[in-house]
């Protein structure tokens, strides 16, 4: 599967994003009760933030997943771990579908990681999924993430995990 990326346009993309982030499948995105205006506002804030970026993953020009990348020294994990130069934080969301495609989500996380590591300044990807999100823990492990520890964030109990460029390359070529 081949994906391309484009920045989220908060106003034009809000209806699609709203459908994705409020679906029960996206419970760990923590926007279940968001109104359309809430989604617009949240993604306008991201678009204006130099330390946080939202991108769509596209297949044949159509959005098929969402990824966010952030600087963990300035967003999400400030004061919760020792950020290093070259760290980038990441979230991704595949929307609910009535026709699941075998291997799709693994292809998505692989594409997200490859996209992040295209930047030579990125040395390590940091994630902090909810400890209860076992499906994403398995996907993270498949692309080379190693859990470090559980930690408390204001909104959840998270599993802090890291993946270096070398760990990613080893995992996807194994």
From TrEMBL:
Pathway: Siderophore biosynthesis; mycobactin biosynthesis
Protein name: Lysine N-acyltransferase MbtK
Functional description taken from the UniProt entry: Acyltransferase required for the direct transfer of medium- to long-chain fatty acyl moieties from a carrier protein (MbtL) on to the epsilon-amino group of lysine residue in the mycobactin core.
InterPro entries in UniProt: Acyl_CoA_acyltransferase (IPR016181), Acyltransferase_MbtK/IucB-like (IPR019432)
A Pfam family that the UniProt record links to this protein: Acetyltransf_8
Superkingdom of the organism of origin: Bacteria
Matches recorded under Gene3D superfamilies: 3.40.630.30
Residues annotated as domain Acyltransferase MbtK/IucB-like conserved: 6-53
